Amino acid sequence: MDLFYSEAHKAFRQEVRDFIAANLPDDMRQRLRAGGFASKADTELWQRALNRRGWGAPAWPKAFGGAGWDAAEQQIFADECAAAPAPPPHIFNITMLGPVIIHFGSDAQREYFLPKLLNADIQVCQGFSEPGSGSDLASLKTAAVREGDAYVVNGQKIWTSQAHYSDWVFCLVRTDPNAVKKQAGISFLLIDLKTPGVTVRPIISIDGRHSLNEVFFDNVRVPAANLVGEENKGWDYAKFLLGHERAYIAGIGRNKERVACAKALLAKLAGEGHPASTLAAYRGQIALIEADLHALEVTQFRMHGGHADMKLSPMLKARGSEIFQAITDVICRMTAPASLRADTGSLTKSYLYSRAVSIFGGSTEVQKNILSATVLDLS
Fold this sequence. Notes:
Blueprint: H1 7-23, H2 26-33, H3 40-53, H4 71-83, H5 91-104, H6 107-118, E1 124-127, E2 143-147, E3 150-157, E4 168-174, E5 186-192, E6 198-204, E7 210-223, E8 227-228, H7 234-249, H8 252-271, H9 276-304, H10 313-335, H11 346-357, H12 364-374
Parallel strand pairs: 1-4
Antiparallel strand pairs: 2-3, 3-7, 4-5, 5-8, 6-7
Helix pairs in contact: 1-4, 4-8, 5-6, 5-7, 7-10, 8-9, 8-10, 9-10, 10-11, 10-12
């Protein structure tokens, strides 16, 4: 991708590399490289280090504490974090909720939440999916009824990542059950998870991790001041947020790191004398994946540079998910039984996790349906 980068951008890349080398704890680097996941403590430590440097929110305007970087700088930073590997800026705090509050929140919400999101003084999670309302998100049933200066919330959310250690959840709730269009009766509400009536229950996923949860709301009173924007306009804010989420889930940097891992593993196998015919098949698969990844990177670069319609963000999400699954599969096949060993078993967990990538954030099938309707006009 050097074709797209100026000399100033190349100098910036080196600055990012130097910062990561000097500030990323080695134990965190090794755990992430082995296919592990950042813990709550990892996220807080790294987010605060980035914030001290002024890099806590790459895409936020400087006026709100962000770095205000251009598209190329954002991509360089994401690439270098993934290559280290280091955790990215907190996705729920920085990529999702922050931009919504910046664009649609009140002055009081900006003043209270933005500094805390930047410094990981609070961590937030996303309360969108419900039983029976995942892919068809607009059919959600969690209700928020206005009573004086508060909303009373009743309902359930599911697959809520990190809710068990988050402080707040940003929720889509139904405030007008009689709206002609179901999308028109939804609002965007911020809920403190310590509020009486909130219950969080764990969901253990196939990789053995506890990252997902069910969240129940039983007569939870939420101050009306926690409504973001206008009542019944939440669907518009959710579409804005999901555009950011799906571009993030393209995972260009993460996929580059996995390709580099596959190449290093291939070289190791060659050095150990594995048959050239076997390695040739892996080499071909890696080359094809790398070509697909380069095409996706160019597309994302064009979109973030303002040269393409963000209606294409579902394509980034779908294609990035497929590439991540493909390269993870190749790595596990190359390691063969070693990926099941106790000391390298994180590769197996990474493979199991990869199966969910094409589901969360909107399944691949739904993303392709969206593209067919909004881009190809095939509805």
